[in-house]
Amino acid sequence: MAKAPIVSPDNSAETSTIKGKEAQNTGKGRPTPTRKEREAANLRPLVAVGKEERKAQRDRVADQRNRARIGLANGEEKFLPARDKGPQRKYVRDYIDARWSVGELMIPVMVIILISSLIPKAQAVTLYVLWAFVVVAVVDCLLVGQRIHTKLAAKYGKENVERGLRWYASMRALQLKIMRMPKSQIKRGQYPEL
């Protein structure tokens, strides 16, 4: 049986025959730590111990949360969740925030319809008004989704437009402007440029 060459630190190949304790002892120069020693070295408390340490940890966590909340509200890319990241989604947010949408009136109209449905003579009319409003809001969402998709396809190419942007635009268009997250970064009428 052939002996495999052993490569020494100076990269010269030498053959070695290992018989008992005749082999050269090359090692790391210290004994291997036991499992107990390794676990003791890694041992540290998961939560802070002591009153001041707990308070400091609470303050640190509160500062991080506050920074993330403010960053999300301001639309900073690193604080946005995955569904809001990217230049195409930013364009959709800015486009929706620049226009008036029928869906923005959904909550106020629903409140008015609920109150007017308490009047017995107006119940049939309020039902028709509700359904008409829902149909108009859905049509508005479909149109804005199509408009945004065509604009993004013109810039990025039809195959490079992200999936789900129409739904993203529709959901943002159905919310009141003051309730949208990330907060609106532009004023009405200031449409973004591609």
UniProtKB/TrEMBL annotation:
Start-end of Polar residues biased regions:
9-27
Q: Report any Pfam family annotated for this entry.
A: DUF3043
- Species of provenance: Frondihabitans cladoniiphilus
UniProt KW keywords? Membrane, Transmembrane, Transmembrane helix
Does this entry carry the keyword Phosphoprotein? no
Instruction: Specify the protein name.
Output: DUF3043 family protein
Region of interest (Disordered), residue spans: 1-44
Which InterPro entries does UniProt cross-reference here? DUF3043
Transmembrane regions listed in the UniProt entry? 98-119, 125-145
Q: Is Ubl conjugation included in the keywords of this UniProt record?
A: no
